[in-house]
Amino acid sequence: MFSSKKAPLNKKDFLNRRAFLKRSGKVTAVASATSVVASVTSVAAALTSFDLMAAGADDYKAIVCVYLLGGLDNYDTVLPYDEASYDKYVSLRPSLMARYQGSRDRSKLLPLKPLNDTQHQARSFALPAEMPNLAHMFNQGNAALVANVGPLLASTNATTFEQESVTLPQRLFSHNDQQAAWLSGSMNQARFGWGGAFSDHFIRQGANVSPEFSAITTGDNALFLTGKRSTAFQIDPEGPQYIDALAESRGDRRLNRLLNEHFLASDNKLALLAEQDVANAFQQSLVSNRKYNKSVAEFDSVKYLFDEGDLTNQLKVVAQTIAARNRLGVKRQVFIVGIDGFDTHSDQAQDLPQLQTDLDQGVANFYKALEELELTNNVTLFTASEFGRTLSVNDDGTDHGWGGHHFVVGGAVKGQKIYGQIPELGYGHALDAGHGRLIPTLSIEQMAEPIGRWFGLDDAALAEALPSLNRFKKRLTFM
After folding, report:
1. Which residues on neighbouring strands pair with residue 338, listed in sequence order?
2. Does residue 182 contact residue 444 with C-beta atoms inside 8 Å?
3. b/e per residue, 337-355, with b = 16+ CB within 10 A?
4. Which CA distances in Å does 53 have to 62, 63, 265, 386?
5. CB neighbours of 207 closer than 8 A, spacing ≥ 6?
6. 444-455 vs 194-205: helix axis angle to the nearest 10?
7. Cα–Cα distance between 388 and 70 in angstroms, integer?
8. Which segments of the chain have a pLDDT < 50?
9. Alpha-carbon gap, residue 129 to 110, rounded angstroms
10. 177-225, pLDDT tens digit by residue?
11. Cα–Cα separations (whole angstroms), residue 50 to 53, 301, 366
12. How many Å apart are CA 182 and CA 214, to the nearest integer?
């Protein structure tokens, strides 16, 4: 998931289009790697006046999902900060805290200062030292936390969970199933995603001149973006995607012409409808890919606003795509990017801090790019992950949980607040599904609803995109 793949191309197939179409599943467009130039000191110098003029704010809006693959430990991200809660946390995770060798000391944490701090009584919270940018963005009002979100089919507590007296999501604590629940909504179906449903609404309205650029992913998993009309357009963080054979054949005009005819299916009619459908799909993909590459090339300077890193590189190409929105002919876009490694069964004290650094740096770079493009109010970013993790530890790691806490970032976000309730720290309480697995108090649909409403969906469109929303009374207001 969320990785670039490179596959060799068989040139013999290119010369026999009929055979090639029958083997279409074996053909992959290949990305040409480009070296990444170091960040410039002045971000303003990186953009030309033309870039800024062409990328000026308008009716455009975009949603960016940052998927944290593996299950983010919410306990080790939104940490207790008041002394009583912090001391209790250390006592409940002694082996894990010892492995941090002081880097999780209370004095090193970054306190959050929510405007609604009284909702958690005397408790307070902080982010780890690896997340200074998100802590700053939260305290400045450009980010919010949505607490204890997860797949739900009905309001649930420890008693109803144990007795199974309410309908529960299928195969809880399973990576694949809970990923599908997050990306599609929590109705136990994985055919369409709620990002794709949001995109469908604007495709039907004709908001995007080029609907193929409505939903964009930097990885392999396109479920979130799949709708009845919406399909994912894949982009590569390493640079524009090309078919190598076309690029390599430019020195041979006849071969290059034949290959172009081959991919465009322009030399003759195909007998079988299935073959024609595949040919049409390749033709559309080739045309769309060329248009995309040409459009974003005009905004190549955007990438100089970014540092290095897996997530940073993905958000860099998202920012470049957003800058090219007028060239691409879009008013509404939905993106998904993601990073792996959050399944921290072991070595959590070694692995999680670097992942938190990557998340913090990537989001910060992206937000700075939006500031330069004057689009902070037009783009909303949020995190998602299949589940939180257990409060209990297995010496140096944690197990699969259920509910988790997530960030929402953007100029339109009503930030510096914690939306929802962070459950008490410990075991055996009303929201403990065992081993400190938090039973969610907010469903995925409840988190998605204000994002969709900000995006421009009305009540009818939201009901269609989020069919389980009416199961829950509480409505969030972070947008």
Report:
1. 67
2. yes
3. bbbeebbbeeebbebbbeb
4. 19, 22, 39, 39
5. 330, 331, 332
6. 20
7. 9
8. 1, 3-57, 277
9. 6
10. 999 999 997 655 568 999 999 999 999 999 999 999 999 999 877 899 9
11. 5, 11, 20
12. 20
| pLDDT confidence of residue 240 | 58
Candidates 398, 361, 370; CA nearest to 76 is 398
Short-list 130, 109, 112, 75, CA closest to 359: 130
Closest C-alpha among 145, 224, 87, 162 to residue 415: 145
- This model's pTM is above 0.85: no
341: left (phi over 0), alpha (psi -120 to 50) or beta: left
The DSSP secondary-structure symbol of 130 reads: T
* Residue recorded with tokens 């908001």: 207
Closest CA to 117 of 109, 126, 108: 126
Under 8 Å between Cβ of 262 and 279: no
Longest dimension (CA), the chain: 76
Q: Where are the beta strands (DSSP E) in 11-165?
A: 30-31, 61-68, 79-80, 110-111, 125-127, 143-150
The structure tokens listed for 468 are 């389980």
Give the C-alpha separation, 476 to 479, whole Å.
8
Per-residue model confidence (pLDDT) at position 271: 55
Q: What 3-state DSSP class applies to 419?
A: strand
Closest among 392, 384, 383 to 425, alpha carbons compared: 392
The Cα 341–Cα 361 span in angstroms is 16
pLDDT of residue 114: 97
- Among residues 305, 309, 328, 145, the alpha carbon closest in space to that of 235 is found at 328
Crossing angle of helices 310-323 and 348-372, in 10° steps, is: 20
* H or E element, residue 418: strand 418-419
Strand 143-150 vs strand 404-409: parallel, antiparallel, or unpaired? Answer: antiparallel
Q: Hey, which residues does 217 pair with through a beta bridge? A: 234, 336
Three-class SS state of 111: strand
Cα separation, 434 vs 162, in Å, equals 10
DSSP string, 12-23: HHHT-HHHHHHT
Do 470 and 463 form a contact (C-beta atoms < 8 A)? yes
Cα gap 347→312, rounded to integer Å: 24
